[in-house]
Fold Flavin reductase.
Amino acid sequence: MGQCTSWLGIAEIGRFCVSVLGSDQLDACKRFAASSPDKFAGLSHRSSPSGQPILDNVLAWIDCETEVIHELGDHLLVVGRVEHLERERDALPLLFFGGGYHKTEGIKL
Ligand SMILES: Cc1cc2nc3c(=O)[nH]c(=O)nc-3n(C[C@H](O)[C@H](O)[C@H](O)COP(=O)(O)O)c2cc1C
């Protein structure tokens, strides 16, 4: 866990805002999945009600206070208490599963 520099900042503040990316936002996803001193540089964003960054043009955002952290093997499961959330636009989400990125029409069961 020593390499997770973004997590150290999130853990210290005790808050985070989830930006739900659309399938047209792969570049932003790749940027945030790699280490960099300022991942937000040159990327338009604004503040959530609790002061955390929200990327512009996301499908939805979820503003949370850290509620509890569970250690699961070599991962941490961070559970957030939702304080605010907003749906912003209707489009296909960016999905990651089976080792790759996907966009898909909703499958109705
Ligand atoms: C789809 C996806 C899922 C990821 N899941 C995890 C994860 O569960 N745990 C983890 O440590 N890193 C995960 N990563 C890699 C982190 O995004 C990456 O290590 C981190 O953002 C590096 O930035 P940092 O140095 O600022 O923490 C994932 C990356 C992608 C693209």
